């Protein structure tokens, strides 16, 4: 059997240090635009969005933001019907 790293939970979100990937992503985008445009303002905005996202996620139930994005139609959840569907096939 091949030895390798296994996560503690298979459905655990990907983490960077102690942040989840979706929390650190705005800061990473800010760093990218900071380097591209040679100004610090995108980094400050990215860190601000990251801070607000971490605080928001701490006060809400688990997967609330994912379900909110599904409800708003930003993305779909595989195996789920479209949120705005009124009729379903039997």
> Rounded to an integer, what's the Rg over CA atoms?
18 Å
Largest sheet descriptor: 2 strands, antiparallel
The termini sit apart by 45 Å
Elements, N to C (H/E): EEHHH
Report the uncertain regions.
none
Helical content, roughly? 40-55%
Our count of helices gives 3
Number of strands: 2
Q: Bin the strand percentage.
A: under 5%
Broad structural category: mainly alpha
Biggest sheet strand line-up? 1-2
Q: Assign an overall shape.
A: extended
**Quick check: average pLDDT?**
77
Question: What attributes characterize this protein structure?
Answer:
49% helix; 90 residues; mainly alpha; 4% strand
Summarize the structure.
The protein has 90 residues and is mainly alpha-helical. The protein has a domain of 58 residues. Helices cover 49% and strands 4% of the residues.
How would you characterize the overall build of this protein?
- The structure is a single chain.
- The protein is mainly alpha-helical and 90 residues long.
- The protein has a domain at 15-72.
- Helix content is 49%, strand content 4%.
- The protein contains 3 helices and 2 strands.
- It has a two-stranded antiparallel sheet.
- Strand 1 (15-16) and strand 2 (19-20) form a beta hairpin.
- Helix 1 (21-37) runs antiparallel to helix 2.
- The longest helix has 18 residues, at 41-58.
- The protein is extended, with a radius of gyration of 18 Å.
- The protein starts with 14 loop residues before the first strand and ends in an 18-residue tail after the last helix.
- 4% of the residues are buried.
- The mean pLDDT is 77.
